[in-house]
Amino acid sequence: QKIRAVYDSNPGKFKTLQNILEVEKEMHGSAWPKTGATLALMWLKRGLKFMLVLLQSISDGERDEEHPNLIRVNAMKAYEIALKKYHGWMLQKLFMGSVYALPYKSDLLKALEKGKEVKEEESIEKIHQFLSRATPILDAIYEMYTKMNAELSYKA
């Protein structure tokens, strides 16, 4: 909502995410990047990375051999890569507990297919196609944050 609000305030001035970061850097001075759409986008990109790593892990066939329809292994991998280093002890423990509430892989794939019954192989192929398009975009956002020195490493 913060990102959208900034964009909507002046669509001509905020045509791209990079424009938003550049203008906010100028506007907020020493408070940047700890404020506004820059901070919101930082957490959004981290959440998106979690989802992309989760989907990549599922599509790569990584699984718990004893419980192949569970996605805990995939979620734990995604958490380790995308979010854990930004979370304090309490949030890490909360996440560890939350993996027991995750849907079954079959239910997740069905949800991704909007409730339609589709062969797992077809769903996995669609995930591959999505990842091939989404991953470069997210990589570009991460690169932009690195180049602009906008990444924060504090723990939530």
From TrEMBL:
It is found in: Cytoplasm. The keyword Transport applies. It holds the Pfam family GLTP. Keywords: Cytoplasm, Lipid transport, Repeat, Transport. Gene3D superfamilies: Glycolipid transfer protein (1.10.3520.10). Its main location: cytoplasm. InterPro entries: GLTP_sf (IPR036497), Glycolipid_transfer_prot_dom (IPR014830). GO terms for molecular function: ceramide 1-phosphate binding; ceramide 1-phosphate transfer activity. The keyword Repeat applies. Residues 1-113 form the Glycolipid transfer protein domain. It comes from the Eukaryota. GO terms for cellular component: cytosol; membrane. Belongs to the GLTP family. PANTHER family: GLYCOLIPID TRANSFER PROTEIN, GLYCOLIPID TRANSFER PROTEIN-RELATED. Accelerates the intermembrane transfer of various glycolipids. Catalyzes the transfer of various glycosphingolipids between membranes but does not catalyze the transfer of phospholipids. May be involved in the intracellular translocation of glucosylceramides. This is GLTP protein. It comes from Podilymbus podiceps (Pied-billed grebe). The gene is Gltp.
